[in-house]
């Protein structure tokens, strides 16, 4: 298979972890005889510094020419005081709109060997395996008007929660399609006791559910979902929700696994290249120190192979390699207990070495043959 991957390293640890993800994709290419061609683009603070804008046209072009996009992360204190059109995050929102990345998938998976890294007791998190499907291009983050005003002598402010029915339907359908291949349960999260948008969301969820008779649908208020994620995270299979609720709940869920450095994500489009990125940000506190955990970016590369290229076996090999390395006791600083840990580059080396020749991988290959 020959495929083009656009790589947008971004800022801070984004540059370090995408390097690791590219190394892993190259290792997969070598082992399975695929040609992955990498093209690079600027985004975020790095793009502001070099091109005067958080998302240059050339980056949009690079992405549109590719079969999939791998992103690091954007942002950092250097640009925190910039005017809003020159904020790194603008680049992120803009690429989501440009590529119409409407569905953000964030799997939350329990690793037995990391049980001690979670702030929750093992009995609560053992076996946790769910996925948050977050709407990504609508809701409060994109609705207009979004502005400050003066009414009488008082400053007022408005943000708008706007959705088209079709936008709600396609994300809910994505959740049901995801659930079909899992434990067949969709929890739709809203605030229907207060918000009209949530009441429409519920109606649409009920309609879509009729097309999936084997999948159970339940509704849950967002405040209750926030509580349930901590009290009984094993309860969930597929959680679907609107943009802002999803943003908050997925960060809450990320802590179950012990570190933001473990969580991958996929942002899918119906047509064109989808984008894959770790859930974490640019981690300015550890950037440039070879301390970042590259696993979230590496698992994002696995999602890229699965969702964009249909390479299920190769994706499973990456996931298995990560599991083997953790099982062998290797840790980056965020997961380590004490001062004995691997740097970013050594963790990448450990994972690529497993992909290149470990017997655990052979058993996956047998399972898929
Ligand atoms: P963050 O995710 O960058 O960091 C939060 C904490 O997690 C920090 O202590 C950091 O050291 C740690 N952490 C994050 N990634 C890690 C990794 N791979 N390995 C080990 N530890 C890791 O969030 P923040 O500090 O709130 O934000 C920093 C910057 O990142 C801000 O400018 C923010 O706007 C931006 N941000 C970008 C994205 C994105 O690009 N998608 C997402 C969130 C935040």
UniProtKB/TrEMBL annotation:
Function summary? Catalyzes the oxidation of 3-carboxy-2-hydroxy-4-methylpentanoate (3-isopropylmalate) to 3-carboxy-4-methyl-2-oxopentanoate. The product decarboxylates to 4-methyl-2 oxopentanoate.
Positions annotated to bind substrate: 96, 106, 134, 223
Which molecular-function annotations from GO does this UniProt entry contain?
3-isopropylmalate dehydrogenase activity; magnesium ion binding; NAD binding
What is the scientific name of the source organism? Answer: Priestia aryabhattai (Bacillus aryabhattai)
Please report which protein family the annotation says this sequence is part of.
Answer: Belongs to the isocitrate and isopropylmalate dehydrogenases family. LeuB type 1 subfamily.
| Pathway where it operates | Amino-acid biosynthesis; L-leucine biosynthesis; L-leucine from 3-methyl-2-oxobutanoate: step 3/4
Q: Where is Mg(2+) bound in this sequence?
A: 223, 247, 251
Gene encoding the protein: leuB
Needed cofactors, names only, are:
Mn(2+); Mg(2+)
A Gene Ontology biological process noted in the UniProt record is: L-leucine biosynthetic process
Q: Which residues bind NAD(+)?
A: 76-89, 281-293
Isopropylmalate dehydrogenase-like domain sequence ranges: 4-351
The record's annotation in SUPFAM superfamilies points to: Isocitrate/Isopropylmalate dehydrogenase-like
**Textual note on the cofactor:** Binds 1 Mg(2+) or Mn(2+) ion per subunit.
What are the record keywords, sorted? Amino-acid biosynthesis, Branched-chain amino acid biosynthesis, Cytoplasm, Leucine biosynthesis, Magnesium, Manganese, Metal-binding, NAD, Oxidoreductase
Where does this protein have coiled-coil stretches?
Answer: none
Query: What name goes with this protein?
Result: 3-isopropylmalate dehydrogenase
């Amino acid at each position: 298979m020959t495929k083009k991957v656009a790589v947008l390293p971004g800022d801070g640890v984004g540059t370090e972890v995408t390097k690791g993800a590219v190394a892993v994709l190259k290792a997969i290419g070598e082992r399975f005889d695929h040609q992955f061609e990498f093209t690079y683009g600027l985004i975020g603070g790095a793009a502001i510094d070099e091109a005067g804008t958080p998302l240059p046209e050339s980056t949009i072009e690079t992405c549109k020419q590719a079969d999939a996009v791998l992103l690091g992360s954007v942002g950092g204190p250097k640009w925190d005081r910039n005017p809003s059109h020159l904020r790194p995050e603008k680049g992120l929102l803009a690429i989501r709109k440009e590529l119409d990345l409407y569905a953000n998938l964030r799997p939350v998976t329990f690793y037995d060997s990391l049980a001690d890294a979670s702030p929750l007791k093992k009995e609560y998190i053992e076996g946790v395996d769910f996925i948050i499907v977050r709407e990504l291009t609508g809701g409060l983050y994109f609705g207009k008007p979004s502005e400050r005003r003066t009414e009488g002598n008082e400053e007022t402010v408005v943000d708008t929660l706007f959705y088209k029915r079709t936008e709600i339907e396609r994300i809910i359908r994505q959740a049901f399609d995801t659930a079909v291949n899992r434990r067949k349960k969709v929890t739709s999260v809203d605030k229907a006791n207060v918000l009209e948008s949530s009441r429409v969301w519920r109606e649409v969820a009920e309609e879509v559910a009729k097309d999936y008779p084997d999948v159970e649908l339940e509704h849950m208020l967002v405040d209750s979902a926030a509580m349930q994620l901590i009290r009984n995270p094993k309860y969930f299979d597929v959680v679907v929700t609107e943009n802002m609720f999803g943003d908050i709940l997925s960060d809450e869920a990320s802590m179950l696994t012990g570190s933001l450095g473990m969580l991958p994500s996929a942002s899918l489009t119906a047509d064109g290249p989808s984008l894959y990125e770790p859930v974490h940000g640019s981690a300015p506190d550890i950037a440039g120190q070879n301390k970042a955990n590259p696993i979230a970016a590496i698992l994002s590369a696995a999602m890229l192979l699965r969702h964009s290229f249909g390479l299920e076996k190769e994706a499973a090999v990456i996931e298995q390699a990560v599991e083997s390395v953790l099982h062998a006791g290797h840790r980056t600083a965020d997961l380590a207990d004490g001062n004995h840990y691997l740097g970013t580059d050594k963790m990448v080396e450990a994972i690529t070495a497993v992909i290149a020749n470990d017997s655990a991988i052979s058993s996956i290959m047998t399972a898929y043959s």
